[in-house]
Amino acid sequence: MAADVYTEPPHVGRGGGPGIRVGGWMYQAGVEWILGFRLRGTTLLLDPCIPRAWPRYEIDFRYHSATYEIVVENPQGVSRGVASSELDGQALAGGGAAIPLADDGATHQVRVVLG
User: How far apart are CA 93 and CA 82, in angstroms?
Assistant: First the structure.
């Protein structure tokens, strides 16, 4: 990917700049805006906007000494909207997916259901 496209002669239409810049933006767009994975301090916010055809996806996330095994399920074939979320088998209040993070060395299970 070209990071920028030149508009001045003699290089009109040519791409330049390191593609790594664009690659970083594409990664961020995919992780934050499609998978809905946003880290805010000691809270992980999950608010996916995925294709309806995706039945589920998984992310393993390490937060300091802890590991979070995240499963996002899409049984109704929707694009967005969190119906329920759980952390270690316990329902999270509010119906959204705000996951409190802990630096406790444990492996945590996160389940988010869209709908």
Answer: 12
CA gap 83, 16 in Å, rounded: 44
Q: Measured between alpha carbons, how far is residue 11 from residues 2, 20, 21, 29, 36 in Å?
A: 13, 21, 20, 29, 38
The per-residue pLDDT for 103 is 97
Which pTM was predicted? Answer: 0.78
Is the Cα dihedral 29, 33, 34, 38 positive or negative?
positive
pLDDT in tens, 58-111: 999 999 999 999 999 999 999 999 999 999 999 998 767 899 999 999 999 999
Q: Is the peptide bond before 75 cis (omega within 30 degrees of 0)?
A: no
- Phi, psi at residue 19, to the nearest 5°? -60, -15
Is residue 56 within 8 Å of 71, Cβ to Cβ?
yes
